[in-house]
Amino acid sequence: MRRSGVLRIAKAVLAKLPEPLHALALKHRELLKFTAVGGTAFLVDNAMFYGLKLTVLEPKPVTAKIIAVLVATIVSYVLNREWSFRARGGRERRHEAALFFLVSGVGLVLNSAPLWVSRYAFGLETPDVSLMTQEIADFVSAQVVGTLIAMVFRFWAFRKWVFPEEKIRPGRVRLAPAPDATDEAA
For residue 90, what is the enclosing H or E element? Predict the structure, then answer.
């Protein structure tokens, strides 16, 4: 019931888009869904990272980042499996989950590396720099640079290895875009 409500909303939004955007959105719907899941995981990651970094893990920002990314990864797996890539794959869940978490482990390293470089290679931490400089450097390195690098890698790797196109899950039919009025007249 809830899924049909979401589909109605998605169809209503798509119907309001001008034709070039409508066709582009349909063509890249998997990327758009992946981006929406990524945005949700980003919010989970930020909440966990800052919640831990500003409280119990204040002296250990990289540990806080790793924990935050792990929690966000679990959220990401569930949403990507059930929404973004639901028409893909065909592997057993255990195999698929193992591949997902392996790829996400590489993503975790890619996500955490810019923060490590910022803090420990560039020395952007108090008392060497102001608290404000440290916090801005942490945000830019961990939440912007790290997230973008990991996102590009994960999208590519998920499509290539975790949810490959050639193994479409049984019972999942991919809907083709509806023909527009000009196609029907021809």
Answer: none
